[in-house]
Write a structure and sequence with these properties.
Blueprint (H helix, E strand, L loop, with lengths): L3 E6 L3 H11 L4 E7 L3 H11 L3 E3 L2 H5 L6 E4 L6 H10 L3 E4 L7 H14 L3 E3 L7 H11 L6 E9 L15 H4 L4 H17 L5 E7 L4 E5 L16 E5 L5 E8 L3 E8 L8 E8 L3 E5 L5 E5 L6 E4 L23 H17 L10 H20 L3 E2 L3
Helix pairs in contact: 1-9, 4-5, 5-10, 6-8, 8-10
The structure holds alpha-L-sorbopyranose.
Alpha-L-sorbopyranose binds next to helix 8.
Length: about 375
């Protein structure tokens, strides 16, 4: 059987994780990578042992041998790259947020459908084994009807006005920063697990640092701690540091959550609680193998990931036995496994978030900014 060939566009923090995740698929190889100049591309390719590299992604799209493209660049490039890739007949995995606007995201959905190409927005966090176990518990009715969802996605890597990253500037990251980066993950997870859809929201955004000190050279995600005062210049900021949101998920279910990049000590604090009429569940990404299950009349339990004890339908999401943790990197292996199954067999079920899910995420981002500006509840497109 011919190995499928993938090209990765963008070699920052997440591009590297994609390369490693693809390499864990037995039927796929990382054939090429693209960066915004030849030198950067070549350096990364050398470091990772990838044969082909280019400073111009179009040259890779012209290669008939490449089956799929992973877009891991700053958000402003998602749309032009995905559009060009789909037009060239490539299957596409795109990082979140899918695009800079819902108009762009909508075009991506339509083009992928028209071309009948596999399309995935990388909400990898769905693929933690205990999240999948929870999804099955909820589907089996163990939580009853879902009444309330609560939580946060909090990080601290942009706490200081000297912290910098491409996401801070709307021209490269989009009008929303923390919500697009973290809020889209939170909403995707909650909707995936509960089977409910966010229908209306009321949001309040805050930009604590009205100006920030921009480094005079590029800084990798999470890598700002290494700079000195003379390395910066002061610039005004037009993207948000923090958002709090109230949610309606249909007529009955309600929710509330916050997202922040200024929460000292929270490194990747993605946490949620789901309350139903029969029971509740809570999970936290920083302790991914543990799932808390709450009961009204019997003792609460913390269950630990162990495929042999997991719901049968969730079992294939865990590859290691109990006591052997599976984390962030492994979620990429799991999502790509399912994506490439549909690339190899176009009739295989789509067991991953697709561009339509990505469009919904972008629509929620737009509604968050809209609601905050108006100080009002707004409806989210169905
Ligand atoms: C940075 O905030 C980031 O890398 C996000 O972009 C990811 O989606 C998240 O999983 C971890 O944090």
């Amino acid at each position: 059987m011919r190995k499928l060939k993938a090209a990765v566009f963008g070699t920052g923090f997440v591009g590297r994780v994609h390369v490693e995740g693809i390499r864990r698929q037995p039927n796929v190889e990382v054939a090429a990578i693209a960066e915004y100049n030849d030198e950067l591309a070549k350096r990364f390719a050398g470091e990772m042992g990838i044969e082909r590299s280019s400073g111009d992604y179009h040259t890779l799209l012209a290669d008939k041998e490449i089956d799929a493209v992973h877009i891991c660049t700053p958000n402003a490039l998602h749309f032009p790259m995905a559009k060009a890739a789909l037009e060239a007949g490539k299957h596409v995995v795109c990082e979140k947020p899918l695009a800079m606007s819902s108009a762009e995201a909508d075009e991506m959905v339509k083009l992928a459908r028209a071309k009948n190409l596999a399309n995935c927005v990388n909400h990898n966090l769905r693929y933690y084994p205990m999240a999948q176990h929870l999804r099955r518990i909820r589907e089996n009715g163990e939580l009853g009807e879902i009444l309330v969802v609560q939580g946060t996605y909090s990080q601290d890597w942009l706490l200081y006005d000297t912290d910098w990253n491409w996401r801070i500037e709307s021209k490269s990251g989009g009008r929303s920063r923390v919500f697009a980066d973290l809020g889209t993950h939170w909403c995707d997870m909650i909707q995936h697990l509960t089977g409910l859809r966010i229908t209306s929201l009321c949001a309040d955004t805050q930009t604590f640092h009205k100006t920030r000190k921009r480094p005079k050279r590029a800084v990798e995600t999470f890598a700002g701690k290494t700079l000195k005062p003379e390395d910066y210049e002061e610039v005004p900021i037009d993207t948000e540091d923090f958002v709090s949101v109230l949610l309606r998920l249909g007529d009955r279910a309600r929710g509330a959550f916050t997202v922040s990049q200024l929460a000292a000590g929270r490194k990747n604090g993605f946490a949620f609680e789901i309350y139903g009429t029969k029971g509740s569940a809570a999970w936290n990404q920083e302790r991914p193998d543990e799932l808390w299950l709450g009961h009204r009349n019997t003792p609460n339990r913390i269950i630990i990931k162990d495929p042999s004890l997991m719901d049968e339908k969730a079992r294939s999401y865990a590859d290691l036995p109990g006591g052997h943790s599976e984390g962030y990197d492994d979620t990429f292996k799991q999502i790509f496994r399912r994506f490439y199954r549909t690339v190899a067999d176009r009739s295989a079920p789509v067991e991953y978030p697709d561009f339509a899910d990505g469009l919904h995420g972008v629509q929620i981002c737009e509604k968050v900014l809209d609601s905050s500006a108006k100080h009002a509840w707004v409806d989210v497109p169905a």
